[in-house]
């Protein structure tokens, strides 16, 4: 049986998982594809570094040219991460007629259109199932199984590191720093975890999910993105007393002819399926006009789970090579989206306010809410410190315009501080 040689660029958490899976699942893969697969060359930064995987029969190198100039290598997996030099690396590989698999959401969300067109020009495949929600096979599912349905919303927990941190803090009383360190040790976090904790990693994934679900090309700087770094434990506890779990959610919704996408902490009702997703697990809820609500759950980070998604792309590309059908885009759906007005984006909100513990303060808040046409569904007052009170409000539906007005009005009241404003998910 003919063997297809594979190159890897990167041998960290994901690269090691890919190497193990190719080695351990030879028989099944060749049974399905009619080809043997074998990893021939791996590009790393440091060839002398200790590796947890067996690289005895593999050429370890720092030179990409060892892959580029090797006609035997047909498929290359980019798992080095980051935008540069990953973009230049993939461009060079595609121009050398290599089919590429990547797990790199930063790159695909930012430069995916250009790379896709380079791939098409070279009749090469470029696939990236692992870039969104690690081990959950969500992108291919949207392409294949939602091909004819109109997706109205895609939302969920798409960052393993932050969900791990929130779970460890809420259930194990871990501090934020301890939980982040554990997520790094377990290989869930990016090499620089800033993008994880600041919501940027989740935003990249929502950009890719929006492309597949709505055909749109959203830009990172057009999205409101909030991470978990500034979240207060008091808000997490307060939310819990009100029957909610705080999760970092990505939400992308079709509103009229536009698409709205955001990432931030959201209060999820404790009995909602998304409230039950713990640790590094992710869950993506896709709502289609015909099918209704569907939920896809699984590990969002980690070597072998992510490698499984990479292998699904390698197997698809191998089949395309065998059938002579390479060069088609992973996602073909293209659709211009209108701008969504702030007045059209409506959610209930959790508001946490600090104010002097003296009579008349609540009246001021009530007057502002009445002025902007918003109303409360729940309100709780607790003592903050000796002379201030914390007031927590769950509002009825409010538009983003009303929320901005509320923030402006509260800014003008020296004595009242808005500490947090998070969306609340309905059941
Ligand atoms: N970790 C996870 O759970 C998931 C990760 N991903 C994505 O997968 C990709 C890889 O992540 P992960 O495996 O965690 O990263 P790691 O940091 O564990 O590994 C990165 C690897 O890339 C190599 N590398 C980095 N820069 C260069 C360079 N300039 N030239 C050559 N080699 C380089 C490193 O070499 P050396 O070993 O010599 O330092 C290392 O082997 C990223 O895009 C990430 O976002 C996606 C889903 C889940
Ligand atoms: N750092 C990412 C890895 C997977 O994409 C995460 O924590 O989700
Ligand atoms: Na995936």
Written account of the structure:
This protein has helices spanning 13-24, 26-33, 65-68, 86-95, 105-121, 138-145, 160-172, 176-185, 194-197, 200-214, 233-241, 303-323, 361-372, 400-411, and strands spanning 3-9, 36-43, 59-61, 73-78, 99-102, 126-127, 151-157, 224-225, 244-255, 258-269, 281-288, 292-299, 346-347, 349-356, 376-383, 388-395, 398-399, 417-424. It is an alpha/beta fold and 427 residues long. It has 3 domains: 3-134 and 303-323, Rossmann fold (3-Layer(aba) Sandwich), CATH 3.40.50; 138-299, Dihydrodipicolinate Reductase, domain 2; 343-424, ACT domain (Alpha-Beta Plaits, 2-Layer Sandwich). The strands form 3 sheets. Strands 7, 8, 9, 10, 11, 12, 14, 15, 16 and 18 form a 10-stranded mixed β-sheet that branches. The protein has a 6-stranded parallel β-sheet with strand order 3-2-1-4-5-6, with helices on both faces. The protein has a two-stranded antiparallel ribbon with strand order 13-17. Strand 4 (73-78), helix 4 and strand 5 (99-102) form a beta-alpha-beta unit. Helix 4 runs parallel beside helix 5 (105-121). The structure holds NADPH dihydro-nicotinamide-adenine-dinucleotide phosphate (NDP), ligand LTNE7NMQ and sodium ion. Sodium ion binds next to helix 6.
């Amino acid at each position: 049986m003919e063997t297809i040689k594979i190159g890897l660029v990167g041998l960290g958490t994901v690269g090691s998982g890919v190497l193990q899976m190719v080695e351990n699942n030879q028989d099944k893969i060749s049974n399905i594809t009619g080809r043997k697969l074998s990893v021939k060359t791996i590009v790393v930064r440091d060839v002398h570094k200790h590796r947890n995987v067996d690289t005895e029969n593999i050429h370890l190198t720092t030179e990409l040219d060892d892959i580029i100039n090797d006609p035997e290598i047909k498929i290359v997996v980019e798992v080095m991460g980051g935008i540069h030099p990953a973009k230049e690396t993939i461009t060079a590989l595609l121009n050398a007629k290599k089919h590429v698999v990547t797990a790199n959401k930063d790159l695909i969300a930012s430069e995916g259109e250009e790379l896709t067109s380079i791939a098409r020009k070279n009749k090469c495949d470029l696939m990236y199932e692992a870039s969104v929600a690690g081990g959950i096979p969500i992108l291919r599912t949207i392409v294949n199984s939602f091909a004819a349905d109109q997706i109205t919303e895609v939302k969920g927990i798409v960052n393993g590191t932050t969900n791990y941190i929130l779970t460890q803090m809420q259930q194990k009383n871990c501090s934020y720093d301890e939980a982040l360190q554990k997520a790094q040790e377990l290989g869930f976090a990016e090499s620089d975890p800033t993008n994880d904790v600041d919501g940027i990693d989740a935003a990249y994934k929502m950009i890719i999910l929006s492309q597949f679900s709505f055909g749109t090309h959203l830009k990172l700087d057009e999205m409101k993105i909030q991470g978990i770094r500034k979240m207060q434990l008091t808000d997490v506890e307060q939310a819990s007393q009100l029957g909610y779990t705080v999760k970092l959610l990505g939400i992308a919704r079709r509103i009229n002819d536009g698409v709205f996408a955001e990432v931030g902490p959201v209060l999820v009702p404790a009995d909602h399926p998304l409230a039950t997703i713990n640790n590094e697990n992710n869950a993506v809820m896709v709502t289609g006009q015909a099918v209704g609500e569907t939920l896809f759950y699984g590990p969002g980070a980690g070597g072998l789970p992510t490698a499984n998604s990479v292998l699904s792309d390698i197997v698809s590309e191998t089949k395309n090579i065998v059938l002579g059908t390479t060069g088609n885009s992973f996602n073909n759906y293209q659709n211009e989206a209108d701008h969504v007005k702030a007045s059209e984006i409506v959610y209930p909100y959790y508001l946490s306010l600090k104010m002097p513990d003296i009579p008349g303060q609540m009246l001021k808040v009530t007057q502002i809410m009445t002025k902007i046409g918003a109303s409360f569904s729940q309100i709780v007052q607790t003592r903050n410190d000796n002379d201030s009170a914390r007031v927590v409000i769950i509002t009825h539906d409010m538009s983003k315009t009303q929320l901005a007005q509320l923030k402006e009005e509260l800014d003008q009241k020296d004595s009242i501080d808005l500490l947090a404003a998070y969306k609340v998910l309905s059941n």
